Amino acid sequence: MVKKYLCSILFVVISTVSVFADDWENLRIITIYSDNKEYMLMIYPIEYPNDYFTAKYQKQLKKGIVTDSIVSSHAILYHICNSDTIEVWNRPLVNSQSPVNAIVANDGKSIVTIDDWYSKGYEHTLVIYGEDGELIKDFELKDITPFPLEQYFYSISSIHWGGKVEYLDNDRMKIFFRNKNEEEQTRVFNIKTREFKCIP
Fold it and tell me: CB–CB of 100/164 below 8 Å?
């Protein structure tokens, strides 16, 4: 009887997984421009050494024959001035893999990264970096959502909350949320005051 009950649960879980499966592209370098095209942000995903996930490499790693040379996700911000491209900063990002998207302020004094590759709506849903690439704020969805979390659509890897963010000006950004019933709400975050404002 117990075995039959467990099999039933397993069937339900497998059925649910097949309905809500995710389809992710491979990690790639992302290039984002500010709206005025004066700044360019290049985001590099985490990079593993060749054969890193093989048993042979992991054995050699334990023995100290090879080093753990993983390159973490990082970003470089450039200022485009006439025909010159000048590096403003080069910093590691908090993401474990890579952001899914990003936006850049027109004055280049802040950037915002959106979600983590392979895992939307959990850690690093919205991350704000300052003028020198320093971390200003790292939000999970639960920190910023106007809707209860259970009102969003869930898949195997992610909470699908909308994921659209845009600058209103150099200090304020507008965040768009959409739940599973297609209801929408927006909030405005002020980078200088670190405050949110709800918009009906």
Answer: no
